[in-house]
Write a structure and sequence with these properties.
The complex is a heterodimer of chains A (about 70) and B (about 525).
Chain A: H1 16-28, H2 33-42, H3 45-71
Helix pairs in contact in A: 1-3
Chain B: E1 3-4, H1 21-26, H2 30-58, H3 69-104, H4 112-120, H5 122-131, H6 156-185, H7 198-229, H8 243-260, H9 263-277, H10 284-297, H11 313-325, H12 327-341, H13 350-373, H14 375-381, H15 385-415, H16 421-447, H17 462-491, E2 525-526
The chains are: A mainly alpha (about 70), B mainly alpha (about 525).
């Protein structure tokens, strides 16, 4: 007799674009509930930390570019 | 959130611990240590408050009446150091000790013995600070920012302050390690990170900030120490050093420190507002995101404290823009609290009064912060009473109001008795009114040009100063009422139910009041 087992549910891993989107909204401090719930299962903490650091560097660089443009 | 635990709390036979003084010296219990932190913090609040009243007494009228100028500078310096490191920070650690394990369903903190050590480092640091008044030359008078070259010139009082900061820094770092480890490893089954109460989230982020910046402060004051005694010239221009470098290093610590003192306050308010609006917190996840965002931004704004020191225009613009952008996540938080209240069934018990007072008055402090972020305005207002008004609006009406709110919110859980609601409300209104009488006029005296850290001032500032001093004494005396309410609540009062507040959510309300000595030995299951 074959035992039928339920296939184990594995949430898919989020792609870089989705992580970037989540981090962008987190910088603003806003996130839709549905999108947040999706993030919670698909995005891993390491991804958030790496994307957060990259986001912070991009943020600083863009501010530097802006002030250079203004003062040049 | 629902919690189920198959554990009766009707008996307390686990409470076999030493009694008397040794209970407190040797305790590894998170509730005992939380209590120690809170009482320590209150004692330092009184000491720092007395120093503040000594300052205000001198400033009641123009001219020198009570203290000579050097002693006045010692008072301002020690008032700042004691309030920041002795009162506000330990109070939040006290809350973390009591509440974090109760809120995540953990039996205790992860490193219980280190927890004891973290606390017991504080009294020696406090003794160093307070006794420094009695050494030759008196306490350090360099301002709480300890700027070089002032700090490289003071007498032995400066060395005592440096050692005190070292000790308190070590205590904070150990406390943070404990909090992070507890939160990441000891949550009840089913409590995912995104189900944690917001107070726990804000403390997790605050603990990372502390670990990141306390070593920076320790480095800065150690360099001051070696400049003073071991022939180095880190901050001495004559030896190739740079006094401005001290300011950069100090504020790289100092600005995140500001958020260390406010993020847990945000957490407490985020617990209180939903409970008394009887609605879940609006935008929970955006609150978590906004807190992380504020924490990251706090590292790239430090030089807004130094606009008048001199820096390239591009740097001024960078720090000005970055500073103003912090208003975005902070605004998100304020709007979320208001949205939580929107159409809620609100009642205004004392914790809610303090939370509403916090939102109202803290926002005013936030707005004056935005004014000061604008470089050309800051250059006008640098070192005036406007700055004094600004940071007391965020640190007193922000951190301290949240601490009072949190004490009234959880006191019935801690003591098992209800506090006197009428007296609590009187305490709130006296605090709110006298706070504004004290600090609101400082905006005007600052705008009119009154410099801070001066024992004497020109005649045109006399009326505002007299008003501030009257307010300060009223504010100080009102806190005696707080002490009375807390002590009477500990000694007796109506029995508090398990779930003290009708709308309160969370695991701490599933255990009896007072919370038994040991809780959650069998972890609850969070659904």
């Amino acid at each position: 007799m074959r035992v039928v087992t339920e296939p184990e549910y594995k949430p898919r891993k989020a792609g870089p674009l989705e992580v970037a989107k989540a981090v962008f909204w987190s910088f603003l401090g806003i996130r839709k509930r549905a999108a947040h719930e999706k993030d919670a299962v698909t995005i891993k903490p390491v991804q958030v930390i790496v994307a957060g650091i990259i986001g912070a560097v991009i943020f600083v660089l863009s501010l530097i570019m802006l002030v250079r443009y203004i003062t040049s | 959130m629902e919690a189920a635990h198959g554990h009766g709390y009707g008996h307390d036979e686990h409470a076999h611990h030493p009694s008397g003084l040794m209970r407190w010296v040797t305790t590894t219990n998170h509730k005992d240590i939380g209590t120690l932190y809170l009482w320590f913090s209150f004692s330092m609040f009184i000491v720092g408050g007395i120093l503040a009243l000594m300052l205000r007494a001198e400033l009641f009228q123009p001219g020198l009446q009570l203290w000579e100028p050097h002693f006045f500078n010692q008072l301002t310096t020690m008032h700042g150091l004691i309030m920041v490191f002795g009162a506000i920070m330990p109070a939040f650690v006290g809350f973390a000790n009591w509440q974090v394990p109760l809120m995540i369903g953990a039996p205790d903190m992860a490193f219980a013995r280190m927890n004891n050590w973290s606390f017991w480092l504080l009294p020696p640091a406090a003794i160093l600070l307070v006794t420094s008044f009695f050494v030759p030359g008196g306490a350090t008078a360099a301002g709480w920012t300890l700027y070089a070259p002032l700090s490289t010139q003071m007498g032995p009082g400066m060395d005592l302050a440096i050692f005190a900061l070292h000790i308190m820094g070590a205590s904070s770092i150990m406390g943070s390690i404990n909090i992070i480890t507890t939160i990441l490893n000891m949550r009840a089954p089913g409590m995912t990170l995104m189900k944690m109460p917001l107070f726990v989230w804000t403390w997790l982020i605050t603990a990372y900030l502390l670990i990141a910046v306390m070593p920076v402060l320790a480095g800065a004051v150690t360099m001051v120490l070696t400049d003073r005694h071991f022939g180095t010239t880190f901050f001495n221009a004559a030896g190739g050093g740079d006094p401005v470098m001290f300011q950069h290093i100090f504020w790289f610590f100092g600005h995140p420190e500001v958020y260390i003192m406010i993020l847990p306050a945000f957490g407490i308010v985020s617990q209180i507002v939903p409970a008394f609006a009887r609605k879940p917190l609006f935008g929970y996840s955006s609150m978590v995101y906004a807190t992380s965002s504020i924490a990251i931004l706090s590292f790239i704004v430090w030089a807004h404290h130094m606009f008048t020191v001199g820096m390239p225009a591009a740097s001024q613009l960078f720090f000005m823009y970055a500073t103003m952008l912090i208003a975005v996540p902070t605004g998100v938080k304020v709007f979320n609290w208001i949205a939580t209240m929107w159409k809620g069934s609100m009642t205004f018990e004392t914790p809610m009064l303090f939370a509403c007072g916090f939102i109202f008055v803290f926002s005013m402090g936030g707005f004056t912060g935005l004014v000061l972020a604008i470089t050309p305005i800051d250059i006008q207002l640098q070192d005036t009473y406007y700055v004094v008004a600004h940071f007391h609006y965020v640190l007193v009406a922000g951190s301290l109001f949240a601490i009072f709110g949190g004490v009234y919110y959880w006191l019935p859980k801690w003591t098992g008795h209800m506090y006197n609601e009428t007296l609590g409300k009187v305490h709130f209104w006296l605090t709110m009114i006298f706070f504004n009488v004290t600090f609101f006029p400082m905006h005007f005296s600052g705008l009119a040009g009154m410099p801070r850290r001066v024992p004497d001032y020109a005649l045109q500032f006399a009326d505002f100063n007299m008003l501030s001093t009257i307010g300060a004494f009223g504010f100080g005396l009102s806190q005696m009422l707080f002490l009375y309410v807390v002590v009477t609540c500990i000694r007796g009062g109506a029995k508090a139910p398990d779930k003290v507040w009708e709308g309160a959510q969370g695991l701490e309300w599933t255990v009896p009041s007072p919370a038994p000595y040991h809780t959650f030995e069998i972890p609850p299951v969070v659904k």
